[in-house]
Amino acid sequence: MGKTFTDDDDALLAELGVEVETKKAPSRTPREERIVAGFEEIQRFVEENGQAPQHGEDRDIFERLYAVRLDRIREQADARALVEAIDHQGLLAVGGTAYAVAEDDLDDDALLAELGIDVETPPITELRHVRSTAERRAAEEVANRDRCEDFDKFKPLFEHVQKELDTGLRETRPFEMKAEIEKGRFFIVGGQKAYVAEKGETTLTDQGRTDARLRVIFDNGTESNMLLRSLQRALNKDEAGRRITEPTAGPLFSDQKIDGDEASGTIYVLRSKSEHPLVAENRDLVHKIGVTNMSVEKRIAGAQLQPTFLMDNVEIVATYELYNINRTKLENLIHRIFEPARLEIEVRDRFGRPVIPREWFLVPLFVIEEAVERIKDGTISGCVYDPQQASLIRRDTSALADAKPNGKVGHE
């Protein structure tokens, strides 16, 4: 009678150098693949931003989607079990937020479609969510992806496009027509960036419509050889489906407000009057850089009571008025540039609790002004502050688009 090997037997055989055949783990279903890929996107967000995605109307649409996605994964036992092994950031251990209908301005079905989680089947008498055969076929084709073996070649493209989105060189707009699907263009479908790497020869369908085979690369490292019309249907069905525009020309800053410009807020640079030793010793170098949609004077009112202002009064050093600009994205860009010089300082709030403010930097004012000028002329892409040289340097040497961002900001 043959012997059945136990785990202990396997360990002994391994010690003796005898290989034991390991059963292959069952492959995941398309839904499970989407959940895992979606969770990995949340992990990348946490790595890049240092915190879990949050709900709120003031948050970026993708952060809000990631927050909803994380809540759904936490709530569903099978989804939790699927990603527990890769949850090295402890995201599942945090309780889900009780936001309930906080995001009710976004359609639930659209959100769940973004998350890659199946919508609960409605009552049989309710047919409004039933999809046509063509729609189901399009969705399945998007879901059936293969691992992109040469993703290293495309990863820098996705990173560069994200930088251009952050700086305003590119923007996202609703998908409108098939003609927009061309080689070299970027889209957002199913909550992921998609890049059309190849477009085959144009053919005619049985109905006399044009079509073509595409090679589409997704930012989670997968790819699909889908038909152009399949990508078109997926983008049309996806309420959050977007196209990413090409870099467009136009100044980010303007010395004067133009008629019709809509004020968006103000960048402010502050200097602290705190007697904290670290601040007192570097008074001329320690600056807070932020963006507000109210007057700066109103924003700093009661500064001595707020940890973000180091629990002391502040001096306004410079301000820049914004027009037609996403305040949050611009602030994130500025903070990312000066991240190497972020001031590590701890203060106590009114209740004696320790707080570490995140918007103070050990950087001279003239470098901040240079950063503003570089944003103004569109040369900020790839720049980062080097504390050793006390100057802005190129973070990478790859060729960058010489286009300028949209929107305007005027110096006061």
Secondary-structure-based class equals alpha+beta
**Count of folded domains:** 3
Instruction: Sum up the overall morphology in one term.
Output: globular
Helix content: 25-40%
Multimerization status? single chain
Low-confidence blocks of residues: 1-5, 96-110, 112-136, 248-255, 396-412
Largest sheet: 7 strands, antiparallel
N to C succession of SSEs: HHHHHHEHEEEEEEEHEEHEHEHEEEHEEE
User: How many strands appear in the DSSP assignment?
Assistant: 18
Overall pLDDT confidence? 76
Distance between the termini: 89 Å
In order across it, which strands form the biggest sheet? 1-8-7-4-3-9-2
Radius of gyration: 26 Å
How would the blueprint of this fold be written?
Blueprint: H1 7-15, H2 30-49, H3 61-75, H4 77-83, H5 108-115, H6 133-143, E1 146-147, H7 151-167, E2 172-174, E3 186-189, E4 192-199, E5 203-204, E6 210-211, E7 214-218, E8 222-224, H8 228-237, E9 242-244, E10 263-272, H9 277-281, E11 286-292, H10 296-299, E12 314-323, H11 327-337, E13 347-348, E14 354-355, E15 360-362, H12 365-377, E16 383-386, E17 391-394, E18 408-411
Antiparallel strand pairs: 1-8, 2-9, 3-4, 3-9, 4-7, 5-6, 7-8, 10-11, 10-12, 11-15, 12-18, 13-14, 16-17
Helix pairs in contact: 2-3, 3-4, 3-5, 6-8
